[in-house]
Structure formats: C-alpha cells, structure tokens
C-alpha cells in the first residue's frame, strides 16, 4: 500500500480551477495547468489498502486503482501508467470526463471524502505523455483478418485499438469530418482539449489502425457492401437519436437540440468557422435538461457571451449528501452536482416542465412558458397556479437520447434485431443476430458513461477476436448485461 496513515494525515484536495472571469474568456480547460502534480502524491497516499477494493466494482473497466495509487505515491510514473493502461485504453479521456463511480464506491468514502481517484488517474497519464512513456504497441504479426469499426467514439476507438494490437487489420469509419465521435464534437473544449484525442489517434495510426472520415454507413456506403469487404464489423454508432420536446412552438427558430448547438462551437475551435452559426451572444439562453450535456450547453453559452443562462430540470433538486437507505454506499448516488459551468453563473430551476414556446412575428423564439410540477401517485403533475414565462431567445434541448440512428438505413440494411428498449440486440460475445456483425457501446447498451463505452469496446474486441481466430487473450471487463451498481 501507499502511506498506512495517509487517509488520516491528509484531507481530500482537488485540482485548482482558473478564476471564472479568466476562463470564460477562452476555451482552454478550466483547471490550472500543473496544479495537480505537487499534491497528487499525498492524495494517492489516502488509498487505504482496504482489503476488498470496492472501487474496482464501481468502475466497469476494473481499473487497478490501489496499485496505481501506490505507484503514484512513490512517484514511479512508468509503473503507474503501465497499471493504468492495463485496463483502460484512454485514461486521459476518463480522467477528465468520467463522473467517477469509482469514487462513489471508495471504502474511505463511507465516513470521509473519498480518494481523488480521477485526479490521480489524469496526473499519471499526463505525466506519461510528458515523459514519452506512451508509445505505439505494434503487433508482432498480422492475422490476415480484416475488421471494420463503424463509429469513432470511445467504444469504437477502444475496440479498434484492441483488435489492431491483436494483429487484425482494422479500419474505422466515421461519418463526421474528424475522428472522435461525441468526444470530438459533443464535449466542449473547456472540458477536454482536443489535442488529447489527436495524439491518441496518432498513436493508433502508428500501430496500424486506419481511419476513414466523412463516410456514413447506410447512406454513403451500403452496409451490405461493407460486410462483404471485411471479415467482421463492429457497430459503435452510439445512441444519437435525441429525445425531443413535442410542445407548441417547438418549430420556432432558435430552438435546437444540444447536439445541433455544441458541435458548431467545437468547430470554431477546430478552425472551421470564425464564429458559430448558432451563437448565444447577447441572448437569453434556456437549457432544458439538468444532466452533463445540459451543463456543457451552459458553459458554452457563458463563453459566447449570453445575456443570461437558465437551466431547467423536470425532476426535483437532488440532495447534497448520500442518503443511507435510498442511495447507500457503494452505489452511485444521484447528488446535487456543481460543475465548472455552473460555477460560472446562471440559474438552475428544478421541478418545472415546459408547456410551450412563444415567438415574435418573424418566427423567432422569445419566451418559454413553464409550470411547476410535483409527484402525485408516482406521476409528475402540473401544480395549478404556477404557470409563468421566462425570456428565451436561444433554447437548447439536452434531455438525453433514445437509441441508435434508424434514419440512415444501417439497421435495416444489416437486418439487425433490436431489443425491447430499441437498442441493437447482441449475445454474450457482443455479436448481433447477423454473423460477423458485433455491437459495442451506447448502440447496444443505451445512453451511458464513457467508462462503460470503453469497457464495451474492449469486451466486444474479445468477442470479435474469438470469432476470427477461435480463441482470444484480449480482456473482457464486462458482459453485455452488466449494469451499474444502483438501488
């Protein structure tokens, strides 16, 4: 273990954030560069050598957290990154973007603030890139088998890297103009700078993975033609069908899905636009949806110079602390969370539902009408007399996703079966009803977290490798039916 008295001698200390007035004027990550490394050894020492590390169960990747905490405490960065990469292809992504269910399951968290696992993770991998310890892992020999991976989000990239390292010839198809999926165009730059994606892509290129951008399977290339070209196909196309809000006025100009709004802001940072085609500048912005995507819209609106930002959530405000019976340790609790975007301003309104939008004579949205709601007999019901309207010149809908894209023809062309929730059905090896076609990530699981996506990609890669060669030494951290530990 690290320091036997570490959790007694040191309190929880997080990465320092840049001042709000500074960071809202740029798109760089919100944390002070280099602020973690001086404190991370002490933070890693708080790991308790608890005997049964429940953090392993909290993380679907099965990260070897106590081991790399010990190496980080001793500042053995080479060993730490080796342990980190043993279970996670992209720790610089998860260390920045994951909500850290491992910390919710930390044994220390029973009666103290848990270990800063996420901060230790990102410190190890950033140090590894700095020292050159992250190198391409080129396979010693090729299998002669070819695999197409459709989609370049975390699930697709993880599957592609694992299969390439197993010796297969892998091509990743992405319908967008750049590799990365939602990591590229759904996650704002201030949460993760895209240079982290770029250098992983270069590592994967050096290992032999090939990338094909601007090709949408089902439209630009028929799924049946793709299947003829490759020995196996992995579908990692995500759950990109956004949940809509069918209320009067939805058709007004200025009401957009979050994934219509956020990618344009990222394209400005990529140099595609001087200014985003959809901008919050000078506007009263309303974000409908209280999750992470909604918070991304809030932070983006701040940086674009919104006149005001209001975030609406239909559910009641979560509690500040874990409830001992309804959300017991080590389950992942639903708590009130203040993200960096919320620190920057704006108003958060809970237990409200949008009734309709109101526009001007030119068809531009100007007002959002809402009502308070409450649970009656287990159903959310409007509270009489609570109707009101708020200014809204830009509205973003961030209410989650309902399944994989059915409009491009991919599902029908492959002849894929769906499960009862509208996800692509698969067996224990992640194979669909079509032999040689596998599915990983949100397309098979439904909307989920980045750690689940990477775990699915790694597990699906094992299924593909077994199908192609008869056996596999690739790890499979989860089964398709595994779910997060929740009450």
From TrEMBL:
<dbReference type="Pfam" id="PF07992">
    <property type="entry name" value="Pyr_redox_2"/>
</dbReference>
<keyword id="KW-0314">Glutamate biosynthesis</keyword>
<dbReference type="GO" id="GO:0016639">
    <property type="term" value="F:oxidoreductase activity, acting on the CH-NH2 group of donors, NAD or NADP as acceptor"/>
</dbReference>
<dbReference type="InterPro" id="IPR006005">
    <property type="entry name" value="Glut_synth_ssu1"/>
</dbReference>
<dbReference type="InterPro" id="IPR028261">
    <property type="entry name" value="DPD_II"/>
</dbReference>
<dbReference type="GO" id="GO:0004355">
    <property type="term" value="F:glutamate synthase (NADPH) activity"/>
</dbReference>
<dbReference type="InterPro" id="IPR017896">
    <property type="entry name" value="4Fe4S_Fe-S-bd"/>
</dbReference>
<dbReference type="GO" id="GO:0046872">
    <property type="term" value="F:metal ion binding"/>
</dbReference>
<dbReference type="GO" id="GO:0006537">
    <property type="term" value="P:glutamate biosynthetic process"/>
</dbReference>
<keyword id="KW-0028">Amino-acid biosynthesis</keyword>
<keyword id="KW-0411">Iron-sulfur</keyword>
<dbReference type="Pfam" id="PF14691">
    <property type="entry name" value="Fer4_20"/>
</dbReference>
<feature type="domain" description="4Fe-4S ferredoxin-type">
    <location>
        <begin position="38"/>
        <end position="69"/>
    </location>
</feature>
<keyword id="KW-0479">Metal-binding</keyword>
<dbReference type="GO" id="GO:0051539">
    <property type="term" value="F:4 iron, 4 sulfur cluster binding"/>
</dbReference>
<keyword id="KW-0408">Iron</keyword>
<dbReference type="InterPro" id="IPR051394">
    <property type="entry name" value="Glutamate_Synthase"/>
</dbReference>
<comment type="pathway">
    <text>Amino-acid biosynthesis; L-glutamate biosynthesis via GLT pathway; L-glutamate from 2-oxoglutarate and L-glutamine (NADP(+) route): step 1/1.</text>
</comment>
<keyword id="KW-0521">NADP</keyword>
<dbReference type="InterPro" id="IPR036188">
    <property type="entry name" value="FAD/NAD-bd_sf"/>
</dbReference>
<dbReference type="InterPro" id="IPR023753">
    <property type="entry name" value="FAD/NAD-binding_dom"/>
</dbReference>
<keyword id="KW-0004">4Fe-4S</keyword>
<protein>
    <recommendedName>
        <fullName>Glutamate synthase [NADPH] small chain</fullName>
        <ecNumber>1.4.1.13</ecNumber>
    </recommendedName>
</protein>
<dbReference type="InterPro" id="IPR009051">
    <property type="entry name" value="Helical_ferredxn"/>
</dbReference>
<keyword id="KW-0560">Oxidoreductase</keyword>
């Amino acid at each position: 273990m690290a320091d036997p008295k570490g959790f007694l001698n040191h309190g929880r200390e997080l990465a320092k954030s840049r001042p709000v007035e500074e960071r809202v004027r740029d798109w760089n990550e919100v944390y002070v560069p280099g602020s973690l490394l001086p404190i991370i050894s002490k933070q890693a020492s708080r790991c308790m050598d608890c005997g049964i590390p429940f953090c392993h169960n909290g993380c679907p990747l099965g990260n070897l957290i106590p081991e790399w905490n010990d190496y980080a405490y001793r500042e053995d960065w080479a060993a730490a990154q080796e342990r980190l990469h043993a279970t996670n292809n992209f720790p610089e992504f998860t260390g920045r973007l994951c909500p850290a269910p491992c910390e919710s399951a930390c044994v220390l968290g029973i009666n103290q603030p848990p270990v800063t696992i996420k901060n230790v993770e990102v410190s190890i991998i950033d140090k590894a890139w700095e020292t050159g310890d992250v190198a391409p892992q080129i396979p010693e020999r090729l299998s002669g088998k070819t695999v197409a991976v459709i989609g370049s989000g975390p699930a697709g990239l993880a599957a592609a890297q694992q299969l390439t390292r197993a010796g297969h010839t892998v091509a990743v198809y992405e319908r967008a103009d750049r590799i990365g999926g939602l990591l590229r165009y759904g996650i704002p730059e201030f949460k993760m700078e895209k240079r982290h994606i770029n250098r992983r892509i270069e590592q994967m290129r050096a290992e032999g993975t090939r990338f094909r951008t601007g090709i949408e399977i089902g439209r630009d290339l028929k799924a049946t033609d793709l299947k003829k070209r490759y020995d196996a196909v992995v579908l990692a196309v995500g759950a990109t069908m956004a949940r809509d809000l069918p209320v009067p006025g939805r058709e007004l100009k200025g009401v957009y899905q979050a994934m219509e709004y956020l990618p344009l802001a990222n394209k400005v940072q990529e140099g595609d636009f001087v200014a985003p085609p959809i901008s919050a500048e000078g506007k009263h912005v309303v974000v409908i949806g209280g999750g992470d995507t909604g918070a991304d819209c809030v932070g983006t609106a701040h940086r674009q110079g919104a006149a005001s930002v209001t975030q609406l959530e239909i559910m009641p405000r979560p509690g500040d602390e874990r409830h001992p019976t309804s959300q017991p340790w080590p389950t992942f609790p639903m708590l009130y969370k203040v993200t960096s975007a919320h620190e920057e301003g704006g108003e958060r309104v809970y237990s409200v539902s949008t009734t309709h939008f109101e526009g001007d004579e030119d068809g531009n949205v100007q007002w959002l009408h809402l009502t308070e709601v409450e649970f009656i007999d287990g159903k959310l019901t409007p509270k009489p007399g609570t109707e009101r309207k708020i200014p809204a010149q830009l509205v973003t809908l961030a209410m989650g996703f309902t399944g994989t894209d059915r409009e491009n023809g991919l599902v029908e062309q492959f002849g894929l079966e769906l499960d009862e929730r509208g996800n692509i059905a698969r067996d224990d090896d992640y194979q669909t009803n079509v032999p040689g076609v596998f599915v990983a990530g949100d397309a098979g699981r439904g909307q989920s977290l980045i750690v689940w996506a990477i775990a699915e990609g790694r597990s699906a890669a094992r299924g593909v490798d077994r199908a192609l060669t008869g056996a596999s030494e690739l790890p499979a951290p989860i089964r398709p039916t595994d779910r997060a530990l929740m009450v």
